[in-house]
Design brief:
This protein has 260 residues and is an alpha/beta fold. The chain has helices at residues 4-17, 31-36, 79-88, 127-144, 167-185, 201-216, 240-257; strands spanning 22-29, 41-54, 65-72, 92-99, 151-157, 191-194, 220-223. A seven-stranded mixed sheet has the order 3-2-4-1-5-6-7, sandwiched between helices. The longest helix has 19 residues, at 167-185.
């Protein structure tokens, strides 16, 4: 029987040998955010590993589905964002998806962050509460892999469900949501969002709200949707090939925010 000290040293060496370094990214929002973060293994070339925590777009899970990806499928809609993040990283990445189709920022069952989160008036009965429970389980699994929990960036795509609300209210809600993200994930968390499709005055109002936050928040950037293709002439959903293009643009905007 080995002495206890020897057993401890062996365990420590094994733990060190399997320790991993990784950059951690989150994609949150609604259906186009889900498309931008939907990835899977496939026939592509071998890459640095991706620890992928995903979900169904119509679900609100408290725990993720974990997939270890060494070969990223190049044709899936989230491949642009994931591959661009991999290319800029010297490490493995953790890629976390929490996006719910059709979700609003304006009602309590969805992403509404509360009336005044800076002064403790928060809403945790909707998606933000589900999001924090989900992330708690993701964090537990990430740390079990030997990866330090430090979120390197968050991507946001949402707004199509809110085109009928006052754009100034949307801006306040989004600013309060970002405040909560940074309180829970790091005060300097860089956040990148995409515009929504310009179909009417309501969608333009959402985009103006995003642009106003971009002008006011030095750790936030917005990417426009110029030249992208959609599922139909009136559909807000971005085609998979265009999601790949937009994903790479979002990743580039994040790196510019971080000065990389």
């Amino acid at each position: 029987m080995k002495p206890l000290l020897t057993l401890f040293a062996t365990a420590l060496l094994a733990s060190t040998a399997h320790a991993k370094e990784a950059d951690i990214y989150i994609v949150a929002g609604q259906s186009n955010g889900w498309r931008l973060s939907a990835i899977g293994p496939g026939p592509g070339p071998e890459t640095k590993a991706i620890h992928y925590f995903g979900m169904g777009c119509a679900t609100r899970p408290d725990a993720p589905t974990y997939t270890f990806i060494e070969r990223l499928h190049p044709g899936v809609s989230g491949a642009g964002l994931a591959s661009a993040l991999l290319e800029r990283s010297q490490k493995e990445i953790v890629f976390i998806q929490y996006c719910v189709c059709g979700s609003s920022l304006n009602d309590a069952i969805n992403w509404y962050p509360g009336d005044d989160p800076a002064n403790g008036e928060t809403n945790d009965d909707g998606l933000y509460g589900s999001f924090t429970r989900y992330l708690s389980e993701v964090r537990r699994q990430v740390e079990a892999l030997g990866i330090e929990w430090k979120v390197d960036g968050l991507f946001w795509h949402q707004g199509e469900a809110d085109v009928k609300i006052d754009p100034e209210r949307h801006r306040r809600n989004l600013a309060n949501l970002f405040l909560r993200f940074r309180k829970d994930l790091g005060a300097d968390l860089p956040i990148v969002a995409g515009h929504i499709r310009d179909l009417d005055e309501g969608s333009r109002g959402i985009n103006r709200a995003l642009d106003a936050l971009d002008a006011a928040d030095p750790r936030f950037a917005v990417v426009k949707l110029d030249g992208l293709e959609y599922e139909s002439p009136t559909d807000v959903h971005i085609k998979p090939a265009s999601c790949i293009v937009l994903g790479r643009q979002l990743a580039e905007a994040l790196h510019q925010l971080k000065g990389e």
